């Protein structure tokens, strides 16, 4: 037989886990937004006053001597994108784990209620 305080604590822990997962997913989403800003917005290098097109356009893609290419290089963009992967994976796992735990607690409470009602 389950005790009510244990059940309440189990559900609270499941909701906390779900909250941590949602927070990490939000952090990964912010990193994806930052990646999109770096990729799609025009910019100007610090040493010159001319404006560079976004990295998404192919205008500066193969011109290695351009100051635009040196200012916003692909490794920086990929570092932001790659850095978001652990947050997304761990956040997804925590959110799923918390959701499943909470659903299991609800299911067990319903089964227990139905067993007591049938007696």
Please mark out the parts with pLDDT under 50 across 5 or more consecutive residues, or reply none: none
* Overall average residue pLDDT: 85
Radius of gyration computed on alpha carbons? 25 Å
- The share of residues in helices is over 70%
**Major sheet characteristics:** none
Number of helices: 3
Derived from helix and strand composition plus strand pairing, the structural class reads: mainly alpha
Walk me through the structure.
The structure is a single chain. The chain has 119 residues and is mainly α. The chain is 73% helix and 0% strand. Helix 1 runs antiparallel to helix 3 (74-118). The longest helix has 45 residues, at 74-118. The two termini are 15 Å apart. The mean pLDDT is 85.
Features:
mainly alpha, single chain, 119 residues, rod-shaped
Topology:
Elements lengths: L3 H37 L26 H5 L2 H45 L1
Summed up, what is this model?
By secondary structure, this protein is mostly helical. The protein is built from 3 helices and no strands.
